[in-house]
Amino acid sequence: QVPDSFPPLRNETAVHVLRGRMKGIQGHCNSCYMDAALFSLFSCTSVLDSMLFKPFPLCDRNVQSILRDEIVNPLRKTGFVRARSVMHLREQLTEKGQCSSFTNAEKDPEEFLNLIMHQILGIEPLLKLQSGSQEEQQDCYCYQIFMDKQEDLVVPDVQQLVEHSFLTYDLKLVEIPSCFIIQMPRFGKEYKMFSKIIPSLELDITDLLLDSPRECCVCGDVATLECS
Question: How does strand 127-131 pair with strand 137-140?
Fold first, then answer.
């Protein structure tokens, strides 16, 4: 356990601490979905550090301390988290989530995030989505990319995938999210839609926002119509 707090890793420090053998989060017993999610959420960004410290209304302080002292702080200090620490968290999730398979089965990352953010820590949803002309709003914690095979996208970047997915399902962001967690397309061991996906270091969500003023691509004035 590392009870002291450590900031997220940046630039050359991140490379030095995280690169090499015995680095990252040690996998064990189908933990890959959780290992990858935790690494993405905490290794190099502080956007969700409120999960580690803030006493939310429904917050389970035991789960919060395991997440902070046994996973995030060791990852940021030494670049390595042992499988036992993640298993400790999985055991707590099994106990709190009424699901007996969190300690041995592979889950969807969205299921893990919903459980720990909503049921255990009581965090407000991070994303507000609206579909087409419907007034009904969908609140969620992450966005999973679903899309049909695109022949022109051989090695896409994240920006392209998000835009294609939002366009396909006629979705818009109701407001700018404080944190935009995106799950890449997954199709198991037998088939993967893309062999590689290039990370977009910045994401332009201008065209994904509902009722956002945008420039007309013909005249340059404020656009009044949108064509998919």
Answer: antiparallel
The one-character DSSP state at 215 is B
Domains of the chain with bracketed CATH: 9-118 (3.90.70.10), 125-221 (no CATH)
Longest dimension (CA), the chain: 60
Q: How confident is the model at residue 188 (pLDDT cuts 50, 70, 90)?
A: low
- Backbone φ and ψ of 139, nearest 5°: -100, 135
Q: Which residues pair with 139 in a beta bridge?
A: 128
Report whether 76 contacts 95 (CB < 8 A): no
pLDDT in tens, 44-94: 999 999 999 888 777 788 889 999 999 999 999 999 999 999 999 999 988
Distances (CA, A) of 186 to 80, 86, 192: 26, 22, 6
Strands (E), the chain: 24-25, 80-81, 127-131, 137-140, 143-144, 171-173, 182-183
pLDDT tens for 153-175 read 889 999 999 999 999 899 999 99
143 near 129, Cβ under 8 Å?
A: yes
Task: Give the single-character DSSP code of 129.
Answer: E
CA atoms within 13 A on the CB side of 211: 6
Give pTM, 2 decimals: 0.86
Strand partners, 88: none
Report the range of poorest mean pLDDT among 19-28, 153-162, 185-194, 217-226: 185-194
Q: Which residues contact 65 (CB under 8 A, 6 or more apart)?
A: none
